[in-house]
Backbone:
């Protein structure tokens, strides 16, 4: 038994639950303490020490036997700042100290937070400039450097790992503050708030890709309070909302800078003591499931002024005319076997990724082996069929990196709804997914269902999906096969509806949206029909869009005739 490493992960704590070491069976650390006294010592769990996994047969959950050291930096090869960029706090000149003084920042703070000065080539000006350098240190390693010249041009060290600035300051605290810029970290340090961290690259309206959060999540997982003190502008608020979604509303607090843009501006206008008081006066994010008018007044005002917000679209012109969606909802996709349901769902999530940078997780027991599913996504992203000669080339590496970073495959020996949703929640937190695909529904069972009645089972199943979607603002696809198929007078199988899925009317009633994917083999076309849209501003019930499937890219081409050719495996 290897007590140091499993599957490339270094073990941090072997046997974290203090179970009977080496035993193949024993108690479950998750449920045994909650069981009846006579069952507390029941051997309800199996232990696989070589894999580091345990499985409970009572609560139907899996758990890790060990904890593992941080792996984020080893998943990719990052460039580290070289010896020319060794941190030396004495490298600051008097002019720099004087400028920081006008921003309320003392020499002591600059020295303690490793702010340096030096010449650096800046692409914005095309020449070397004298720059202020914010050194990003994690542990005892210099991980990255942010450069700022006199014209407020910025750049990070090329190819270096993105992490929070001042991340070491969170160690030993059960709370911390997240701000939008290094200057705000310095301002809070002046106010005695030394456990503040900054995002490395500011905020944008699209704040889905928080790779620095992925790389530092283990520093934040034990925090019981996280104050989000980002800028009050629109990108800052988008970033705030994404942090709340990823970190959990139950630990997040928000701050009102009283008309000031950020912490540094507040420091200059009001002083260190009032800034410290403002941080400690941060208010918790409003309670889940409890809403007042003032909680939603911004949305209400926006609706009164602008009406419905447009839905998100996949980038297929004919389909976008008849269907769009919001996040926090789920879509039921049905169709007869081999109609292209899974393939069209893949195309939808690739479209959402292209348009909005959404990441997707797949729980697809039938879309196996996983490497073939990854191959489909590569083709759709590449818009072509990669050849053996492409392997290792620039295009291959670019597309492979993109698929690796944006699509995640939930691989389980035995799928169940509870485990899939739990893993989905983890992927929201660690990777920022916005889409979850369950394909197909009947292979991801709800083992905790309390009723044998099919309608009740379906209703409870979809209610759990809806709760997940709304809590994490995720768009979920449920691929569901019809249970009955009928042939028409022409001998062709009739198009199924949502009522043909096992559970019947519950699917139509509970689903936000329903789509039919139906292939006409004679005409060599695929039809996508809108079976249901919950909100009429998002689509047209009964509307249809037609596609030809293009085999090299594996893509659906709107209303176009595409010449086909045999694939290598045909």
Residues:
């Amino acid at each position: 038994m290897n007590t140091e490493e499993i599957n490339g992960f270094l073990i941090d704590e072997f046997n974290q639950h203090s179970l009977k070491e080496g035993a193949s069976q024993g108690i479950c650390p998750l449920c045994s303490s909650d069981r009846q006294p006579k069952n507390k010592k029941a051997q309800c769990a199996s232990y696989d020490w070589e894999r580091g996994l345990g499985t409970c047969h009572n609560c139907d959950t899996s758990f890790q036997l060990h904890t593992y050291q941080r792996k984020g930096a080893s998943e990719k090869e990052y460039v580290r700042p070289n010896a020319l960029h060794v941190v030396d706090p004495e490298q600051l000149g008097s002019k720099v100290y004087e400028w920081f003084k006008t921003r309320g920042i003392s020499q002591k703070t600059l020295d303690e937070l490793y702010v340096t000065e030096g010449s650096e080539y800046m692409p914005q000006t095309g020449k070397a400039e004298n720059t202020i350098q914010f050194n990003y240190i994690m542990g005892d390693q210099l991980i990255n450097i942010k450069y700022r010249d006199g014209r407020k041009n910025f750049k990070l060290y090329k190819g270096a790992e993105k992490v929070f600035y001042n991340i070491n300051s969170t160690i030993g605290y059960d709370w911390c503050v997240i701000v939008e810029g290094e200057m705000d970290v310095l301002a809070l340090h002046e106010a005695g708030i030394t456990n503040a961290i900054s995002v490395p690259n500011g905020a944008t309206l699209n704040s889905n890709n928080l790779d620095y959060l992925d790389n530092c999540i283990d520093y934040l997982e034990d925090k019981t309070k996280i104050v989000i003190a980002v800028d009050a502008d629109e990108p800052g608020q988008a970033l705030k909302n994404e942090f709340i979604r990823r970190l959990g509303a139950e630990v997040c607090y928000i701050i009102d800078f009283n008309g000031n843009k950020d912490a540094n501006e507040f420091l200059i206008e009001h002083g260190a003591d009032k800034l410290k008081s403002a941080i400690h006066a941060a208010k918790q994010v409003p309670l889940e499931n409890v809403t007042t008018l003032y909680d939603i007044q911004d949305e209400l005002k926006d609706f009164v002024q602008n009406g419905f917000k447009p839905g998100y679209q996949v980038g297929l012109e004919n389909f976008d005319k008849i269907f769009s969606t919001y996040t926090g909802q789920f879509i039921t996709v049905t169709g007869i076997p081999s109609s292209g349901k899974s393939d069209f769902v893949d195309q939808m999530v690739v479209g959402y990724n292209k348009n909005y940078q959404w990441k997707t997780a797949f729980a697809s027991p039938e879309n196996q082996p996983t490497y073939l599913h990854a191959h489909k996504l590569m083709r759709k992203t590449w818009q072509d069929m990669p050849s053996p000669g492409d392997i290792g080339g620039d295009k291959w590496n670019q597309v492979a990196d993109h698929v690796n970073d944006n699509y995640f495959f939930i691989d389980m020996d035995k799928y169940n709804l509870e485990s899939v949703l739990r893993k989905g929640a983890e992927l929201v937190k660690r990777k920022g997914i916005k889409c979850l695909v369950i394909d197909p529904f009947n292979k991801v069972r709800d083992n905790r269902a309390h009723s044998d009645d099919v309608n009740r089972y379906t209703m409870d199943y979809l209610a759990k999906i809806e709760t997940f979607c709304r809590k994490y603002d995720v768009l979920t696809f449920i691929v569901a096969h019809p249970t009955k198929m009928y042939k028409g007078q022409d001998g062709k199988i009739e198009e199924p509806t949502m009522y043909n899925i096992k559970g019947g009317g519950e699917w139509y009633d509970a689903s936000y949206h329903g789509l039919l994917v139906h292939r006409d083999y004679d005409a060599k076309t695929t039809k996508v029909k809108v079976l249901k849209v919950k909100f009429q501003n998002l689509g047209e019930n009964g509307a249809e869009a037609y596609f030809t499937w293009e085999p090299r890219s594996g893509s659906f081409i709107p209303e176009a005739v595409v010449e086909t050719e045999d694939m290598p495996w045909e």
